[in-house]
Design a protein that fits this description.
alpha/beta, ABC transporter transmembrane region fold, Rossmann fold, 4-stranded antiparallel β-sheet, 61% helix, elongated, binds adenosine-5'-triphosphate, ATP binding, membrane, transmembrane helix, ABC1_TM_sf, P-loop_NTPase
């Protein structure tokens, strides 16, 4: 906890003026609160005890004035601090979200979505307690207790020292107690983020959950997390109750001592009745903030735990933080991409690419094919600059990708992925996502080329139809067409394409091929290819295996060389459906054991070849 404090203070520093103003207000508020016990003493000792009735009006007037000051300062405090706290929370949320948005893909791979959401939404709420009235009340409470202590000493030194001795033991116990609370709150936030993370996943994957009848299992996982959270809360409550109980005992002991010695003092004439009553009221003034401090301190501990996590996130280096990233691409790009001896590993010591080299000329199509796990997506991720290579370079128009500001590069990129990720908005919003400043006509044109208009017209609200989370209200083929329209509108120089491994009906297939053919024209395209039509069109095919390029050439060259590509190609029934799937990709692979002997004279193969030539 102590380690977190300097960091948290760094966050609060800009608001120190406000906190000081709050502190001054609370001091005025508390001092005004002293009017009641002081006026009581004057009332009992002078107005009643000595019949000085002319003092009655000034005393009551003073009390009224003090109450008014109290009310006004309390109002100003909450207006000033609570509103400032919410503004600060909002600013911080925006800052954290922006920062997370700039973090590299590797950070997202390592952290669950739900956890990131709770970093942005929940953790920053701690500020409400720190800047809102929490911190000021805490300091105000401590200050009031200190001031009251002085007044109590002035009224009766011996009694006060005795009472303070007991309270000191209590304060020491509280200090120890807060030490145990810190880890409890930290753990609570971890469990909470885990539970919400899993919940987000299971709701997003509801179709898989239902298909495998995993509802009960998911519920069990959730229930386990929810119970862990409960357990944590229960321990917190037990701690709180123990603290509450001991404070009641302490108050009882203190009250009895004051009553015993106070009454003896009055009887012996060393204490007036007014002083006794004032003493008890002031004592309550000292004890009440101490107990209030207990509950506020609990909130503060929780807040500091949350904010230290927020600081951890903000300390993560963003994608562009590398000092080498000083260059920028100009307003145009030819689109020549060269990979030289590229090596890469996601985890240290487990290389995935072992020296990949190839050249993609501007406007050419490079098809990546190969078994599952051979490194196709990894190469695409590196070209997208989602990761940085361990060694070797990627140059675009001769510029090393690790030396440029990513924004200046990515504005030339377009992607159409297998799982064409769409947002829960209208079809039009989804198309214009790639270029929000596009005109209505440009959006319509992209929709027309990608053949989105054909199905959009049939929908009740046309291109203004809301398509649901991830576009669930559209068919797979329709989603792909929207995603193609989105890329057409972006008008990228470099296009990344991950073709679907599943076949569509021949009409949808034809429409998608048409859209893709338009999209690929004149752009440097990298495609994880599963369509024979795409592969045949490619200027070069890279056949990957185990993170290496095993074969490289055009379709005709690779067929003629009768190597691994040829083997795979001739083993597939799915040629008929225009699909090319290497081992592990999709589920349409038929092996020799399944009854296909791979001889090139079988009908499916000859039919396929007819299609190729
Ligand atoms: N984020 C990641 N963290 C760690 N390892 C990864 C990650 N992504 C991929 N890998 C590993 O890298 C290797 C290459 O994966 P990659 O996704 O590039 O293969 P692929 O050829 O695209 O496969 P597929 O056709 O199945 O998509 C695999 O062994 C995979 O387990």
């Amino acid at each position: 906890m102590r380690k977190a404090l300097p960091g948290v203070w760094a966050m609060l520093r800009p608001k120190r003026g406000l906190l000081l103003a709050g502190l001054i207000l609370i001091v005025i508020n508390r001092i005004a609160g002293f009017a009641l016990p002081l006026s009581t003493k004057a009332l009992i000792d002078y107005v009643i005890g000595k019949h000085m009735s002319h003092l009655l009006l000034p005393i009551v007037g003073g009390l009224l004035l003090a109450t008014l000051i109290q009310a006004l300062t309390a109002f100003a405090l909450s207006q000033l601090l609570s509103k400032a706290a919410w503004r600060l929370i909002t600013d911080l949320r925006i800052q954290v979200q922006e920062h997370i948005g700039r973090l590299p893909i590797a950070y997202y791979d390592a952290n669950r979505t739900g956890v990131l959401v709770s970093r942005i939404m929940s953790d920053v709420e701690g500020l409400r307690n720190l800047v809102g009235t929490g911190l000021v009340e805490f300091l105000g409470g401590v200050l009031t207790a200190a001031l009251t202590f002085v007044v109590l000493l002035w009224i009766n030194i011996k009694l006060t020292l005795m009472v303070f001795g007991i309270l000191a033991v209590f304060i020491a116990a509280m200090k120890w107690w807060f030490g145990t609370l810190g880890p409890l709150f930290k753990r609570r936030a971890v469990i909470f983020a885990d539970v919400t993370g899993r919940l987000t996943e299971s709701m997003g994957g509801v179709r898989v959950v239902k298909s495998y009848r995993a509802e009960a299992r998911e519920s069990a996982v959730f229930a386990k997390g929810a119970r862990q959270l409960l357990d944590n809360h229960l321990r917190g409550i037990t701690n709180n109750s123990l603290m509450g109980m001991s404070s009641t005992v302490v108050i009882g002991i203190v009250a009895s001592i004051v009553m015993f010695f106070g009454a003896r003092g009055i009887l012996a004439g060393s204490m007036t009745l007014g002083s006794y009553i004032t003493y008890t009221v002031f004592l309550a003034f000292m004890v009440a903030p101490l107990f209030q401090v207990v509950s506020i301190a609990t909130q503060l501990t929780e807040a500091i735990a949350g904010l230290s996590r927020t600081r951890e996130v903000l300390a993560e280096k963003d994608e562009d933080s590398d000092p080498r990233r000083t260059g920028r691409f100009g307003s145009t790009l030819a689109g020549e991409v060269i990979l030289q001896d590229l090596r890469f590993s996601y985890q240290a010591g487990k290389p995935v690419l072992h020296g990949i080299s190839f050249v993609s000329k501007p406007g050419s199509v490079t098809a990546l094919v190969g078994p599952s796990g051979s490194g196709k997506s990894t190469i695409i991720n590196l070209i997208n600059a989602f990761h940085t290579p361990d060694s070797g370079v990627i140059t675009v128009d001769g510029v090393d990708l690790t030396t440029v500001e990513l924004g200046s590069y990515r504005c030339f990129l377009g992607v159409v992925l297998q799982e064409s990720f769409l947002f829960d908005g209208t079809i039009r919003d989804n198309i214009s996502f790639s270029r929000p400043d596009a005109t209505y006509e440009e959006i319509l044109e992209a929709a027309r080329i990608a053949r989105v208009d054909e199905f959009a017209e049939r929908l009740p609200e046309g291109s203004d139809t809301i398509i649901g989370e991830r576009g669930v209200k559209l068919s797979g083929g329709q989603r792909q067409r929207v995603s193609i329209a989105r890329a057409i509108l972006a008008d990228p120089r470099i296009l990344i394409l991950d073709e679907a491994t599943s076949s569509l009906d021949s009409e949808s297939e034809a429409l998608i091929q048409e859209g893709l053919a338009y999209l690929m024209r004149g752009r440097t395209t990298f495609v994880i290819a599963h369509r024979l039509s795409t592969i045949r069109q490619a200027d070069q095919i890279l056949f990957l295996e185990d993170g290496l390029i095993r074969e490289q050439g055009t379709h005709e060259q690779l067929i003629a060389s009768r190597g691994r590509y040829y083997d795979l190609y001739t083993r597939q029934y799915s040629l008929e459906s225009n699909l090319f799937l290497a081992p592990g990709e999709g589920d349409q692979i038929v092996t020799e054991e399944d009854g296909f002997n791979g001889r090139p004279d079988l009908p499916s193969f000859s039919q396929a070849l007819r299609g190729i030539r």
